């Protein structure tokens, strides 16, 4: 896998240190940097990028607005938010805009590189604790749609897979529960993402709670 990374952060020392560290990882082919959101958007517009590491709080345009614009330009780009704080409403908003997860700036170098690789492969990059906290925000808002209408685009089997994904099940868990091969589960997950217009498994979970497909305690 050839992974091209863009790091957008207004702190020069942090930006350069992370770029050097990621550049040493053999799984990552290229690391570009931008000092602000506008520079990051310009780079994505003119270059191939697989994963963006985006500072959430920057002068001028913040990381949330930049995430929205980058995904409008190139929906296939994966974006991980960088923050000094743990999960908060800013991060939740960025994930709602399509970001695939977040990392705190004090994350270990290996964890940061692993998160980039996971994002490039189509997985969300969040700890179980952070995911649980994110769902807490989503649950507080309550469902906003009719679950039957939301599930209409999916086949019966795909609906079963969505329910399993929303419970936090892995592909292996789903395969065993539904008596399917893991490759078949992956095919169903890919079809679900395409039909619902979602970026990854994390966004399937959020979608399920927001649309009343899954509710707390179920």
Instruction: Give the helix/strand class.
Output: alpha/beta
Described by strand count, sense and barrel closure, the largest sheet is:
5 strands, parallel
Strand order of the largest sheet: 2-1-3-4-5
- pLDDT < 50 stretches: none
Q: Whole-Å distance between the termini?
A: 38 Å
Proportion of strand residues = 5-15%
In short, what is this structure?
Helix content is 53%, strand content 12%.
Topology:
Elements: E1 3-8, H1 12-23, E2 28-34, H2 37-46, E3 51-55, H3 63-73, E4 78-83, H4 89-96, E5 102-104, H5 109-120, H6 128-141, H7 147-151, H8 156-166, H9 171-178, H10 182-196, H11 201-210
Helix pairs in contact: 2-3, 3-4, 6-11, 8-9, 8-10, 8-11, 9-10
Tell me what the structure shows.
By secondary structure, the chain is α/β, with parallel strands linked by helices. It is built from eleven helices and five strands; from the N terminus they run βαβαβαβαβααααααα. It has helices at 12-23, 37-46, 63-73, 89-96, 109-120, 128-141, 147-151, 156-166, 171-178, 182-196, 201-210; strands spanning 3-8, 28-34, 51-55, 78-83, 102-104. The protein has a five-stranded parallel β-sheet, with helices on both faces. β4 (78-83), α4 and β5 (102-104) form a beta-alpha-beta unit. The mean pLDDT is 86.
